[in-house]
C-alpha cells in the first residue's frame, strides 16, 4: 500500500551481490528475481526503494512513498538504494555512482529526502559486509556520509 511517509532522514547504500546487468532487459530480469526472492522472504515486494543498474539507470523498487524493507530499524525514516552486483572486489562504474548521486539530489529537490540527510552503508546499521568493500570505500567520500 502507498503510505505517504515524511521526507526521510537517512539514505542507505546496499549491493545485491551476484552478477551485474548492463541493459534494460537484463536489469529487468534481475529485478524480477529480486522481487521473487523478497516476496518469498515475506517482505511484500522488492525491499529496496531504488536499484542502480550497470547500465547507469535507476530502477524503481518501492519508490519514494512506500516504506522499504532494506535496513532493520531504519525502513520508516530511510530509503535504500541498492547497486545491482557484488562490489566487494570491484568498484561500480562511474555511471552507476553518478546515477545514485543524481537520484539522491532529486530526492532532496522533490522534498523526499531532507537537505541535511545522513548517508550510510548498510554495514553501518547492521552486521553485514554490504555494500561491499569497494562501494563502501567510495561512499565514505560522499557528501553527508556519516557513521551511525
UniProtKB/TrEMBL annotation:
<comment type="similarity">
    <text>Belongs to the N-acetylmuramoyl-L-alanine amidase 2 family.</text>
</comment>
<feature type="domain" description="Peptidoglycan recognition protein family">
    <location>
        <begin position="1"/>
        <end position="126"/>
    </location>
</feature>
<keyword id="KW-0399">Innate immunity</keyword>
<dbReference type="InterPro" id="IPR002502">
    <property type="entry name" value="Amidase_domain"/>
</dbReference>
<keyword id="KW-0732">Signal</keyword>
<feature type="domain" description="N-acetylmuramoyl-L-alanine amidase">
    <location>
        <begin position="1"/>
        <end position="132"/>
    </location>
</feature>
<dbReference type="Pfam" id="PF01510">
    <property type="entry name" value="Amidase_2"/>
</dbReference>
<keyword id="KW-1015">Disulfide bond</keyword>
<dbReference type="InterPro" id="IPR015510">
    <property type="entry name" value="PGRP"/>
</dbReference>
<dbReference type="GO" id="GO:0042834">
    <property type="term" value="F:peptidoglycan binding"/>
</dbReference>
<keyword id="KW-0391">Immunity</keyword>
<dbReference type="InterPro" id="IPR006619">
    <property type="entry name" value="PGRP_domain_met/bac"/>
</dbReference>
<feature type="disulfide bond">
    <location>
        <begin position="21"/>
        <end position="27"/>
    </location>
</feature>
<dbReference type="GO" id="GO:0009253">
    <property type="term" value="P:peptidoglycan catabolic process"/>
</dbReference>
<dbReference type="InterPro" id="IPR017331">
    <property type="entry name" value="Peptidoglycan_recognition"/>
</dbReference>
<dbReference type="GO" id="GO:0008745">
    <property type="term" value="F:N-acetylmuramoyl-L-alanine amidase activity"/>
</dbReference>
<dbReference type="InterPro" id="IPR036505">
    <property type="entry name" value="Amidase/PGRP_sf"/>
</dbReference>
<dbReference type="GO" id="GO:0045087">
    <property type="term" value="P:innate immune response"/>
</dbReference>
<dbReference type="GO" id="GO:0008270">
    <property type="term" value="F:zinc ion binding"/>
</dbReference>
<protein>
    <submittedName>
        <fullName>Peptidoglycan recognition protein-like protein</fullName>
    </submittedName>
</protein>
